[in-house]
Amino acid sequence: MDRPGAEFALVDRITGREVPLSAQIHDLLHTLLIDLAQNRPVAVVPLDHELTPNQAADLLNTSRGYVLRLIEDNALPARMVGTHRRIRLEDVLAYKVKSDAEQDKAMNDLVTIEQELGLE
Q1: Does the reported pTM lie above 0.70?
Q2: N or C: which terminal CB in the chain sees fewer CB atoms within 10 Å?
Q3: CATH entry, 52-116, from 1.10.490, 3.30.1740, 1.10.1660, 3.40.1130
């Protein structure tokens, strides 16, 4: 607990050894344990992990063909491994954040137009 920013600690009940945790790591573990307790699937994967186009499509809730089109249009970076494409998880998540933000903006714009026209 001597580390700056450490607000929480994991304690080994047998040895009494404490491992300091930041609030961010505490919140992550808390959320992870709740998901596990509710039988939700959980995966811990490094951001530089590479996905197949099928896995990227599943994560983006789109088709494999759409992911391949994103790659061809340079909207989603990928590399070739032999004859197979691989996409970094970090790039897929960044695309998802950007896409979700664009969808939210479009929806807000529609709501604004609807209100201006009095179509509520």
Answers
A1: no
A2: C
A3: 1.10.1660
